[in-house]
């Protein structure tokens, strides 16, 4: 038996007569667990960062930082007054 090589088929585009080779369809990707893990990791990081931002900007934290700054300023004034 004579075996022939398989030739690429071409499509003819109507009206122009140009030939375009048939491109085989890529096989659909299977379940890619790595992609899901990346998405889950990104969601976790986004959630943690949003939580950190909301905690940092909360009213209690702002008041605490202001009180700490006032305490340090008071300590400086106290040291200046007491050392003279």
Question: What characteristics describe this protein?
Answer:
two-stranded antiparallel ribbon, 84 residues, mainly alpha
Provide structural commentary.
With 84 residues, this protein is mostly helical. The protein has a domain of 47 residues. The protein contains two helices and two strands, in the order E-E-H-H. The protein has a two-stranded antiparallel sheet with strand order 1-2. A hairpin with a 6-residue loop joins strand 1 and strand 2. It is rod-shaped. The relative contact order is 0.05.
Number of DSSP E strands: 2
What's the assembly state of these chains? single chain
What is the helix fraction of residues, given as a range? 55-70%
* Largest sheet properties: 2 strands, antiparallel
Which runs of at least 5 residues are low in confidence (pLDDT < 50)?
A: none
Q: pLDDT average, as an integer? A: 82
Rg from Cα: 35 Å
Q: Order of strands across the widest beta sheet? A: 1-2
Structural category: mainly alpha
> What is the percentage of strand-forming residues?
5-15%
Number of helices: 2
Order of helices and strands: EEHH
Ends distance = 113 Å
Structural shape? rod-shaped
Short description:
This protein has 84 residues and is mostly helical.
Any chance you could write out the topology, listing elements then pairs?
Blueprint: E1 10-12, E2 19-21, H1 33-56, H2 59-83
Antiparallel strand pairs: 1-2
């Amino acid at each position: 038996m004579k075996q022939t090589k398989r030739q690429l088929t071409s499509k003819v585009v109507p009206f122009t007569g140009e030939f375009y080779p048939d491109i085989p369809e890529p096989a659909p990707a299977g379940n890619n667990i790595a992609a899901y893990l990346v998405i889950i990791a990104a969601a976790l990081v986004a959630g943690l960062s949003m939580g950190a931002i909301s905690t940092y900007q909360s009213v209690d934290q702002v008041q605490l930082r202001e009180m700490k700054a006032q305490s340090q300023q008071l300590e400086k004034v106290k040291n200046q007054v007491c050392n003279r």
